[in-house]
Amino acid sequence: MPITQLPAVDAVLISHDHYDHLDLPTVHELVKWSAAPFVVPIGVGAHLRRWGVPERRIIERDWDGSVQIGDLTIVCTEARHFSGRGLTRNTTQWSSWAVIGPSHRAFFGGDTGYTSAFAQIGRRLGPFDVTMVPIGAYSDRWPDIHMTPEQAVEAHRDLRGRALIPVHWATFDLGFHRWAEPVQRLRAAAAQAGVPLVLPLPGGRTDLLSPPDVRDWWSPIA
């Protein structure tokens, strides 16, 4: 959707500086359209400063660091990935994020491989009402940086999550698997584990207190 159609934004969470997660035109639009701070892993602020984001709107945190925004506590949490733009690698941090409110908690996995850190995060900051964990672009060639759908279900359970919203699929085609394979495998693994799924269209909104029935909206183009 166009950024101007978003509801009011309280904060912009960035997981790392790869191009499909930190997009320059989108940053420029968010700077013009909202007053929300950019909450980023340590080092990513250098990109934002170079792109003209005001210093007052940049909040950098390393793993286990946190920031209070309104009623929300946003905690920078561990992930298993890498960073870099162009030919530069691993000069900035990558992360997941926990968003803790007065009544509910959410986990955003960003881009990550499976790691035992999920269980630690679940014990320390969970349980989570919803986890948003990546399920796509996996391959035997890079098993440590992207999760399979089955690992995503395992991570969700480690995090002590209730509902699972899959991310990192259906938009950028970065893997060698079929387009709909991640969600098809996820549905099978979640059913076996008894994990409730919420599967909105990319960019769609959903009410977690009254989620719609799961439907295979991807089937016509699978």
Describe the protein's architecture and organization.
The structure is a single chain. The protein has 222 residues and is α/β, with parallel strands linked by helices. The protein has a single domain (3-195), classed as Ribonuclease Z/Hydroxyacylglutathione hydrolase-like (Metallo-beta-lactamase, Chain A). The protein is 22% helix and 21% strand. It is built from five helices and eleven strands. It has helices at 24-33, 45-50, 117-125, 149-158, 181-193; strands spanning 12-13, 38-41, 58-61, 66-69, 72-77, 84-85, 88-89, 96-100, 105-108, 128-134, 161-167. A six-stranded mixed beta sheet has the order 4-5-8-9-10-11, covered by helices on one side. A three-stranded parallel beta sheet has the order 1-2-3. Helix 3 runs parallel beside helix 4 and helix 4 crosses helix 5. It is globular, with a radius of gyration of 17 Å. It starts with 11 loop residues before the first strand and ends in a 29-residue tail after the last helix. The model has no long low-confidence stretch (mean pLDDT 95).
